[in-house]
Amino acid sequence: MNMQRTLGSLALTGAIALTAIPAGPALADGAASTRNIIGGAAVVGGTLLIINHNKKVHQKEDEMASAQAQAEESANDSQAAYASEHRAYLAQVAINHEYKHEVAIQHRMIVQLRGQVASASRAGYAAPAGPTRVATTSYGWGNL
Question: Of the candidates 61, 63, 68, 62, which has an alpha carbon nearest to the alpha carbon of residue 76?
Fold first, then answer.
């Protein structure tokens, strides 16, 4: 890319230098005049071609830079979404751990209460008529 710019600059500089060199005394014949006009038109045409080419190159570079920036922005958005989902997952894992801990505590209490009821039955205490009710604490989870 840099080489193209350098070549374009050199060509433009050469064209300008050629038009600035005096060609000597002007000849009155029509052929020389025609050659000078054609040469000048060729230099101008070449210069316009170089300018147009450089314009297209810069436009392409801008498009590529824009596409790269958009790709990076999309990647950043994806990374942010992943990080957010990962944090939500870790929070859910912590909540599940707390639930498992609470269930384990309740299970230990039930086993302990069953042991107490069995001990009371072996000791000769009569069980009350009807179902035995055990006090529970509700945390708003419904009936377990």
Answer: 68
